[in-house]
Amino acid sequence: MGKYIDLSGQKFHQLTVIHDIGRASNGNVKWLCLCDCGNKREATADGLKSGKTYACKNCIKTTRNHELNDKLVGQKFGSLLVLERLPNDNEQHIWLCRCDCGNELKIRGGNLLTANTRSCGCKSKVLKHGMSSSSEYQAWSSMKARCLNPKNKAYKYYGGRGISICEQWINSFETFYSDIGHKPDPTYSLDRIDSNGNYELSNCRWATPNEQWENRKIQSLSMNHYQHETSNTAIYPNDTEQDSILYCSLGLVSEAGEVASVVKKCIRDNGFDFSTEIRKKLAAELGDVLWYCAQLATSLDISLDGVASNNLNKLASRKERNQLKGSGDNR
Fold it and tell me: Do 134 and 99 have their domain in common?
């Protein structure tokens, strides 16, 4: 049993000692303490002096929750990704979160930690209609991912270039479905009538692949748009960056050889007479070359518009300096 030392009136962290209340089973003196928050707590001299007991149980729990809250950014809770911490609301920690559907909302930290909130509510709404696995719902989700999620592979062709979604559709699959309706059949997909316009009722429809192609032929086709559309037909042996780069590089060489082969046979068999039929063959082979160029650029995360623009600038500089003739990339 240690020597009795009166701790009455002394303060240890958030606890002020009031008086002793006897001894614990191990012989240590027990003290009744008052926490800064107004709650009382029993503690031993050893606990107070070592700092192990520094506040009432409620304050310790709150402190631990605050420390945990500070580590929430970047964590995923159900469908919610924590983006940033916002100013407190009535001493409650508030967080800005993004749902998998693209919707952003403010949520109390306690609701995240206790699993009370796991989405913006989109899943429960869709489940009421039994359409969470429908192709219409998948089209809605994909639309939002392309326009709202910078990590989506197609974002640079949509949200990255200013394509947006009307407010009614962002927050409600039901409204989207009510406006756009049921797919006529599985071959149809969501199409923007004006490919440079936004996702809204006046500019969207269900369309067949042929209808979409005919619509795009009417509008100017950018290199980047072609690059994105060809990605829908890209299939590689393995889904890795290394495989796609190798596959596209070999394909590019192979298809360029096909172009040379058509020209060679024209020289041999037609005496340099590039008939309409031969031109059609060359156009088809050049299309294949362009496909591999586009997908090699995609695999390398290079913009085809950027490739074309840089090449034009290089050639313009050579022309200005009278360097179009000769050899060497640096001329």
Answer: no
How many CA atoms does the CB half-sphere of 225 hold within 13 Å? 13
156 with 225: CB under 8 angstroms?
A: no
pTM attached to this predicted model: 0.40
Which has the closest alpha carbon to 154: 164, 140, 142?
142
Q: Are the CB atoms for 131 and 177 separated by under 8 Å?
A: yes
CATH of the domain at 246: 1.10.287.1080
Mean pLDDT of the chain: 83
Contact between 245 and 299 (Cβ < 8 Å): yes
Residues in Cβ contact with 277 at an 8 Å cutoff, skipping those fewer than 6 apart: none
**pLDDT tens digit sequence for 244-267:** 899 999 999 999 999 999 999 999
Distance CA 258, CA 289 (A): 9
Gyration radius (Cα) of the chain, Å: 33
Q: Report residue 1 as tokens.
A: 């049993």
Domain residues for the domain of 32 are 11-64
Same domain, 150 and 84: no
